[in-house]
Amino acid sequence: MDQPVVQIRDLRTYFYTYEGVVKAIEGVDLDIMSHEILGLVGETGCGKSVTALSIMRLIYYPPGKIVSGKILLHGEDLVVKSEREMSKIRGEKMAMIFQDPMSSLNPVKKIGEMMTEVIRLHLGVSRKEAQRRAVASLAETEMPDPSYVLKQYPHELSGGMRQRVMIATAISLKPELLIADEPTTALDVTIQAQILRLLKKLKENLKVAILIITHNLGVVAQLCDRVAVMYAGEIVEVGTVEDIFERPAHPYTLGLIRAIPRMDEKGDRLVGIEGNIPNLIDPPTGCRFHPRCGFFHAKCRMEKPNFRNLNQSHWVACHQR
Amino acid sequence: MKDVILSVENLSVRFRLRGFFLRKPRWIRPVAGVSFEVSEGKTLGLVGESGCGKTTLAMAILRLEKAERGCILFRGVDLLALSSEDMKRLRRHMGVVFQDPFSSLNPRMMVKDILSEPFVIHGQGRGREVWAKSESLLQMVGLSRDHLFRYPHEFSGGQRQRIAIARALALHPSFVVLDEPTAALDVSVQAQILNLIKDLQEQLHLSYLFISHDLSVIKYISHQVAVMYLGKLLEKAPTAEFFRNPCHPYSRALLSAVPVPSLKNRREPPVLAGRVPSLREPPFGCRFHPRCPERISRCGQEEPEMMEVATGHRVACFQVRR
């Protein structure tokens, strides 16, 4: 049985703004198992990225703050770690890659300088050894001619290459958890396919757990082992990909699946989800999805639904199920 | 043909690259000899990866970008031969919706001003009388009159795109260019906007040039599909035919690269190696041949012509037989 690498328990992350307190994450529970790719899906502003940043402890006050909850990495609570301990854990135990590789690479540093800096800082190895490791991890990402790439600047690389550099840097310290925040959103489909295949390969070769954040259900279906669906700061459904795509239980999950134009099926009309994402300063009472839900009744407005399991792997937070 | 509203023939656009002092000027051609037609009341879906020239092509059609050579016939009138005065008059019949609704609406203008500007520019009334028109435009796209006195920042991405669509339709155009209108939107909102675009086409008998990089969106919205790569069209076909029988190796690679949201098709797609070459040195012969899994020596020597493989289905590839 796979062990959980990270266990999130009742996580709450708020942002304190002039307009009020934005409850970006409100009681999230999530396990990330070793040797799995977990997809976290949801629409803009639902708290996917904030969840990832909270795990990395990259939420800074002001304005953001982890108000309560636990993030356990192999049983150790990250929320109470000092910044110094965290900077050791980041990189060595877990690493993150972002959506836009251009804005996360330093434009005035060569790829080699950036990659060896990370390796030397954490492992204290010689310049030469760091160089060797950088080449090895670039090769792991199927980068053609890695030692040449080390001498290049980010602007000389294409989008797909830059994302490979990001991934290579992230895996250079052999972390146990890799968080990928929309890693292919800025890329073309043919390049996206290359990166997705690479992530799958890395999971096998490096035995790294991957948390992938995306709004693209196609990516989830093709890549992930398990899926968590997030809406307005809460996780509404968790299950294996089979659970989510073959037996979606939450009305929001169902709505998301029906809203995608399909290439593999004939459809005359798409079904959008009416309304907009709620304001998280003053979120709806009860179930946060109820104002947009087609199955809603009085109880949904009054009471927040608890998580219930439909089978061993499939959990849903909905009164109707 | 009688029902063709827009016909583009052998259109090219070139840009000058600024080099160092005294260096020979260099040119790139983001659009290099493109021909296609848009039928009355139908949608042509133009699909391709970033940098393939989709947007430049659309801008050249609207004459917002200068064409190098070629011919653009809009209802029989050659747009490239028109004076800028005449072009301005004709632009009433053409609308455009851009990708990013956050930068295509002036943040300092209220919605009423955004919507009445087309009327004012084209001398079709001013002041209060155009408000009524603006109001009905808003209703048409699913917003209400309360929204007239608000600024763009007060709206969500989907609502802004609705405003941009309303503006494009203000002067009752017959032809609308939609340049990735849903790329910046979430799926649930994308579905609403795509439905709106489809409904408006039926109500108003609009013809669309719909640009997208997303093949599933193209399949949903278009009647005809054109695949563009590095400034050239590689394949043109009716939508159903295209998805049933994609002929060009690039079209097939694009189709198999799209992650399908279903477990039935969970598979390891053959991944297209490499990346799109630079427009500065486009490959000789077929522009796709360096990445093509089915290339033969001829592909690097001469350029394939568009060839008809079935009714209305044209492909530029040596390997495809009639």
Report on this structure.
The complex is a heterodimer of chains A (321) and B (322). Chain A is an alpha/beta fold and 321 residues long. Chain A has helices at residues 48-55, 83-92, 101-104, 111-123, 127-140, 146-149, 159-171, 189-206, 217-223, 241-246, 251-259, 298-302; strands at 4-17, 20-33, 37-41, 64-73, 76-77, 94-97, 177-181, 209-214, 226-231, 234-240, 308-309, 315-316. Chain A has two domains: 4-93 and 176-275 and 306-317, Rossmann fold (3-Layer(aba) Sandwich); 102-174, no CATH class. In chain A, α4 packs across α5 (127-140). The two termini of chain A are 28 Å apart. The model of chain A has no long low-confidence stretch (mean pLDDT 89). Chain B has 322 residues and is α/β, with parallel strands linked by helices. Chain B is built from nine helices and twelve strands. Chain B has an eight-stranded mixed beta sheet with strand order 6-7-8-3-9-10-12-11, with helices on both faces. In chain B, strands 2-1-4-5 form a four-stranded antiparallel beta sheet. In chain B, β11 (307-310) and β12 (313-315) form a beta hairpin. The radius of gyration of chain B is 21 Å and the shape is globular. The A-B interface holds A 43-44, 158, 160-161, 188-194, 196-197, 215-223, 241-242, 245-246, 255-265, 267, 269-273, 276-277 and B 49-50, 156-158, 186-192, 194-195, 213-217, 219-221, 243, 253-266, 268-269, 271-273, 275-276.
CATH architecture tag of the largest domain in chain A: 3-Layer(aba) Sandwich
**The CATH class of the largest domain in chain A:** Alpha Beta
What is the percentage of strand-forming residues of chain A? 15-25%
CATH superfamily of the largest domain in chain A: P-loop containing nucleotide triphosphate hydrolases
Taken from the alpha-carbon principal axes, the silhouette of chain A is globular
The low-pLDDT segments of chain B are none
User: What gap, in angstroms, lies between the N and C termini of chain B?
Assistant: 24 Å
Mean pLDDT of chain A, as a whole number? 89
Class derived from helix and strand content of chain B: alpha/beta
Q: How is the biggest beta sheet of chain A arranged?
A: 8 strands, mixed
What is the number of independent domains of chain A?
Answer: 2
Mean pLDDT of chain B: 89
Order of helices and strands of chain A: EEEHEEHEHHHHHEHEHEEHHHEE
**How is the largest sheet of chain B built, in terms of strand order?**
6-7-8-3-9-10-12-11
Strand order of the largest sheet of chain A: 6-7-8-3-9-10-12-11
